[in-house]
Amino acid sequence: MSHDKEGVPVQPVILAGGSGTRLWPLSRSLYPKQFLPLTGETSLFAQTLDRLDAIGSSRLALAAPLIVCNDEHRFLVAELLRAAGKSHARIMLEPEGRNTAPAIALAALEAAADGDDPTLLVLPADHVVRDTDAFAQALTQAVERAAAGELVTFGIPPTAAETGYGYIRASAPEGACAVERFVEKPDRETAERFLAEGGYYWNSGMFVFRASAILAALERHAPTILEATRAAHAGRRADLDFLRIDTVAFATAPADSIDYAVMERTDRASVVPLDGGWSDIGSWSAVWTHFHETDATDARGNAVRGDAVLRDVDDCLIHADHRLVGAVGVAGLVIVETADAVMVCPRDRAQEVRQLVDQLHAEGRAEPDLHRRVYRPWGSYEGLDLGDRFQVKRIVVKPRGQLSLQMHHHRAEHWVVVRGTARVTQDDETFLLTEDQSTYIPLGTVHRLENPGSIPLELMEVQTGAYLGEDDIVRFDDHYGRG
C-alpha cells in the first residue's frame, strides 16, 4: 500500500452538506439525496463509504473518514456510519451551508490540527463511481501529483453535450496534466463545440491535495474564507460524537465553491482523467441515465422503481414510493410519487425542478423540507391524518432509543402499542406497555417514551388539542443533546 510523501495515510473527506433540490420530491432539505437509495439498495453516502473500503483494502492506506455535514443531518450521518462500522470517523458540523470552500477549509484545518500534513481526498457524498478499479488508479496518480504541491481534480471524459456540468480545459490532449482553464456550465451550443474539439473534461467536484497546499491557496486567493474558518475551527468543541464549530465566526465566511475560490485562480491546478462510470446524480435525468447505462431499464428504455403499470411508454423514469402509478402513451417523462407529492416533468427539463422547489419555498410550503415521515435520532414519525383539533401519527422507536423527557402546553396524546415494548414515564410513574396496550398522556404531563427492547417499537399516537405544532414542546432532559 502507498501513503503520501510523508508516510501519513490519505485522509478521506466526505462533504455531506448538499440539499439535492433538483431531485425533489424524493430529496428534501431535511432528508437530502445523499442519504437516499437512488441508484441501488443503499444510500449514496453508504456507497461512498463502500468505495473507500474497496480502495483502502488493497491499494492505498486511508485514514478513517472525516465527514463535514449540516448540523440538521448529524444523526442521519452518525447512524449510517454506525451501520457501516465506521466508529472512528469524525463528524464536523456546519451550523449552516456555506458551499464547498469553507467546508474544505474546515476539513483541512482539522486534518492538520495535530501537526501532520496529510493528503486529502475530497469526495461529495452524493456521487456515483461504478468502476472502483479505475478510480483507484486515478487516485494513485492524483496522490503522486499532490505530493508535489499540486491541487488535483478529477476530469470526466464527456459522453454528451451536457449543460449541467462545469468543464475543464486540459493543457494536454490526454493523461494527467495541468489545467488550462475552468469553464462554467455552458449553453448547448458551447457544450457541443467542446465535445467536437476534444481536450475538455467534465469537472467532477472531487479533489486531492495536501492540507498545507489547499490552506496556502486559500490564504492567497480567498483569505476571508480562511480567516473565518480558522476562527470557527479555533472555537470548536466536542458534543457527543460530533465536533461543533463556532457558529458566529463561520457565518462570516463567504459562501463560495472551492472551484471559484481557489481552483479557477491558482496556477497549481492539475487534472487526472477518470473514466470510471462517474455521475453526480444531480437531476432525475441523471438518475435515468445511470439506470440506462447499467442496463437497468426495460426493453423500451423505462426505469421503474416501485409499483407501476405502463402501456405504450418509452424512455421514462418512474419512481413510486407509496401508490400504484399508471402511465399510458407517454415518452421521455420523469414521474416521481411520494406520500405527499407527485412531480411530473419532461426528462430534458429535469434541471428546472430546482425552480419548482424555489416556488414552493416562496409560497411557504413544508414539502421542500420535510417528508411525511420525519427521521429523528431515536427513530421516526409519520403523519397519517390531520384534522381540526386532532392528528394521527405512526411512531417507530429504535431499540434502546428514547425520546426526550418533555411536556406539551396545548395537546394531549393517546398511545397504542402495535409492536414491541414501550417504557413510559408519566410524571413520577414509570411502567411498561406491550402489544395492544395503550395509555393516555394528559395535557401538561411530563412524559417520556423509551424502547427497552431489542426490536423496533411501533405505536400509533393520536394527538388532540387546540394546537398541534411540533414547536409545542418543553424538553427537560434529552439523551441527544437537543434543546
Could you tell me the strand content as a percent range?
Answer: 25-35%
CATH class of the largest domain: Alpha Beta
The largest pleated sheet is described as:
6 strands, antiparallel
So how many helices? 11
- Which oligomeric state applies? single chain
Principal-axis shape: globular
Per the CATH scheme, the topology name of the largest domain is Spore Coat Polysaccharide Biosynthesis Protein SpsA, Chain A
Q: What is the number of beta strands? A: 30
Mind telling me the CATH superfamily name of the largest domain? Spore Coat Polysaccharide Biosynthesis Protein SpsA, Chain A
Structural class: alpha/beta
* Uncertain spans: none
What secondary-structure arrangement, pairings included, does this model have?
Layout: E1 11-15, H1 44-56, E2 66-70, H2 74-83, E3 90-94, H3 100-111, E4 119-124, E5 128-129, H4 132-147, E6 151-156, E7 167-170, E8 177-183, H5 188-197, E9 200-210, H6 211-221, H7 223-234, E10 237-239, E11 242-244, H8 247-251, H9 258-263, E12 269-273, E13 278-279, H10 284-293, E14 303-305, E15 308-311, E16 317-320, E17 325-328, E18 333-337, E19 342-346, H11 353-362, E20 373-376, E21 379-387, E22 390-397, E23 405-407, E24 411-419, E25 422-426, E26 429-433, E27 438-441, E28 447-450, E29 457-465, E30 474-477
Parallel strand pairs: 1-2, 1-4, 2-3, 3-11, 6-12, 14-16, 15-17, 16-18
Antiparallel strand pairs: 4-9, 5-13, 6-9, 7-8, 7-9, 8-12, 10-11, 18-19, 20-21, 21-22, 22-29, 23-30, 24-27, 24-29, 25-26, 25-28
